[in-house]
Amino acid sequence: MPNAAAVALPKELEEHLESYVAAFNSGDAEGVDSHYTDAGIIVWEKGNPVSGKERGAAIKEFLGLTQPRIETEVREAYVTGDTALLVVDWTMEVNAEDGTGRENLRGVGLDVLRKQANGTWLYAVDDPFGEEPRD
């Protein structure tokens, strides 16, 4: 679950992050995809942003192949009006590409979220490789 203790987040934004991690860790591709605006993009492969149906297919493929478990911690959060920028430290355990077990990944995501009319937040940009991790 995201650790927002170090960074004050609006309740609805914190709930969005918790819900996203739960869907991600359970392998629920549709649930993960529902956390994005219609035009929202993921940049899960550097230099290759995808959105719409391609985004949904990429999420489904990634979750199915890697069976990931992610943990996140919000390092920085900037909220103005209906827009939020989050800097998120993440660690993930995934199936190794060679099929020999599990491997650990880590990174720092830069995420832009938009507040919806109903008060919920959705990703407009999800870039898990936006910054280099701290050593």
TrEMBL record:
At the top level of its lineage, which domain of life is listed?
Bacteria
Q: Which Pfam family, just one, is annotated for this protein? A: DUF4440
Species the sequence originates in = Streptomyces sp. MSC090213JE08
Q: Which Gene3D superfamilies match?
A: 3.10.450.50
Q: What is this protein called?
A: Cyclase
List residues traversing the bilayer. none
Annotated DUF4440 domain ranges read 15-122
